[in-house]
Amino acid sequence: MRIFLTGATGFIGSTIVPELINAGHQVLGLTRSETGAQALITAGAEAHRGDLEDLESLRRGAAMADGVIHTAFNHDFSNFVAICELDRRVIEAMGSVLVGSDRPFVITSGTGMGNAVPGQPAIEENFNPNHPNPRKASELAGVSVADRGVNVSVVRLPQIHDRSSRASSPTPSNWPVRRESRRMWVTDVNAGRRARPRYRPSLQVGFGEAEGSSRYHAVAEEGVPVRDIAEVIGRGLKVPVVSLSPEEAPAHFGWLSAFVGYDMPASSAQTQERLGWHPTGPGLIADLEQMQYS
Fold first, then answer.
1. Packing angle of the helix pair 13-22, 34-43 (nearest 10 deg)
2. What pLDDT sits at residue 203?
3. What is the dihedral of CA 172, 176, 180, 184, to 10 degrees?
4. What does DSSP assign to residue 255?
5. Which of 156, 213, 244, 256 could form a disulfide linkage to 146, CB 3.0–4.6 angstroms apart?
6. Cβ atoms of 35 and 46 closer than 8 Å
């Protein structure tokens, strides 16, 4: 198969490229720059020049492929509503090319879209179209193109991490805490979710192994308290951790407070059963303990 992959040189996409190639697929990766194009070629993929604002470039890439995996996302979280609306347009643009075919279209969302009962883990079957989180725009776009006959699957992501500071934004090293006056500040809330995503099994499911318009959770740990995250980072930076109440958080964290304040545990039990996938590797705290904080 020839797969059109957006975000091909990003934190997530760059791990998907070799996995797809090793599975025998050809990869056509979206990139904005010559540096990105050379990185894709070196990895054994083809480069397709364009970006998320150039919807025609996305349509061309999708038209040349047997399937599409969409992992690109503008990480300007200070303008979250606008970037979620951009993702909606991106999904609708690529989906329009896939209408009338069985080509799978795997899109990306967040595990928070599966939360229904406060304090209970998000599950795959839950989706509230009236969810207050603007990220719902991605899944609403997926529903829209699925209604037109496109074979859509959604991979919902938690916070993705490794042992470097290069992780999906906001990164583990800057999301829950902020270093100031040689102190680490953290709100007294919890936040769940962590795993590395699995797109290739979802892509295979899209080719008839299960029904389309399915949702999957790329989750290993159901929940990791923010305080635990802050404390391990504080130890790494050799600074104390200072608590803030939820009421104090917005003045200190600014736009980050919305992410810090969400309580979003998530389960991947259904995903693991359907795909035969079982997450491996270290958890978030173990990765943070191995980071080079110097």
1. 30
2. 53
3. -90
4. G
5. 213
6. no
